[in-house]
């Protein structure tokens, strides 16, 4: 009976984290990609409200920045679903 209780306490004390180093690496990569997308989206306003600034409709703000944000979100989903415990 003593061995059984020792085995149960060993299993309780050996807690493993769900995410490993690889998961966090991909998470930070995704967060960086999302942050870069939001930084690229910023700016382009006008100081004078009566003057229209065409710069808000350029390629960087309309296509590139939202694409980077979506890629970053995809990387985040991949980082969450990645199973580092799976040995091949």
Q: What can you tell me about this protein's structure?
A:
- The chain has 88 residues and is an all-alpha fold.
- The protein has one domain.
- It is built from three helices and no strands.
- Helix 2 packs antiparallel against helix 3.
- The radius of gyration is 23 Å and the shape is rod-shaped.
- The two termini are 37 Å apart.
- 3% of the residues are buried.
Choose one word for the global shape.
rod-shaped
Main β-sheet: number of strands, strand sense, barrel status? Answer: none
SS content category: mainly alpha
* Beta content: under 5%
Radius of gyration: 23 Å
Helicity, as a percent range: 55-70%
Strand element count: 0
Topology overview:
Layout lengths: L1 H12 L7 H21 L17 H23 L7
Which features characterize this protein?
88 residues, mainly alpha, 3 helices, 64% helix, rod-shaped
